[in-house]
Write the structure tokens for this entry.
Amino acid sequence: MLYPLIRKFFFALDAETAHGIGMNGIDFLNAAGFAGLLAKPVTPCPVEVMGLRFPNPVGLAAGLDKNGDHIDGLAKLGFGFIEIGTITPRPQDGNPKPRLFRIPEAQGIINRMGFNNAGVDKLLENVRRAEFPKKGGILGINIGKNATTPIDKAADDYLICLDKVYNDASYVTVNISSPNTKNLRELQKDEALDDLLAQLKARQQQLAEKHGKYVPMALKIAPDLDDTQVAAIADALRRHRFDAVIATNTTLSRDGVDNLPNGNEAGGLSGAPVFARSTAVQRKLAAALAGELPIIGVGGIMGGEDAAEKIRAGASLVQFYSGFIYRGPDLVAEVAETLAHVMTKKTR
């Protein structure tokens, strides 16, 4: 019952200000040994995906902790894995403020952050200070391109980031689906995607030899794809032997929020309004992939049953971000408990 009171305070503040205070609060409670005040015990449900063993299938999506400043505090909340970023080669401020908007009537959030981050080198400093990865915690690092890098040179930025994070990541996510970096989603199109995946896969193989370990790569896609695009992406992922796909990022659609306060702000919409669209794309992707690579289901998970629907639609793991803002740490335990039942039934 604690989080609804905390949320009332936070929701009275500007969204980005509240985010900063909330994350610092998690760090404070962790440092003081009181992280248990926020988190309930999480039901174990070990799963193996991408060659990694996850203690449970519930992950934190990228975007909440862009620079890896809060890894250990977040880990105490029971997540089976944490994804940080999106990170770019060089630091960048992102888009002008305000750029983060709540739509509480629909349990939605619109953001146009624009990959604001302190750069890959700063993220790595934070990762190397954190205890979670040292103790075997699964840490994904989400990589992108700088806003000033021309789209025809985008692969260079992804390769720079992959080189730098490879040895410190449990897995690497390639984000080509944010709607808040100009032309980024063009990289999801046939020739551009083929070229990018080929370069990344070749570099992954070189890095595996250099470091003596294989770090899997996932591709994060948009929910605003038609059936032909979904099929083409599935073919490309299979052809280049990618390790996983994350479905999906935020949507440009305003279905369900267009008449609400903040509903027509520019940016990507997440939370409950994206659930149906995201899950539909995930289901089509699962059919096209036919089990050849795993799917991480994300988009609109606000409760245990939402997560179960992602699993039933073909996901092996789930992630959330907006649900965490609306529901707080209780959502981690609820989703883990629901999925422990659902996934046990699936394996019987």
Summary: The longest strand covers residues 81-87. The CA atoms of residues 241 and 315 lie 18 Å apart. Residues 2-347 form a domain with the TIM Barrel fold (CATH 3.20.20.70).
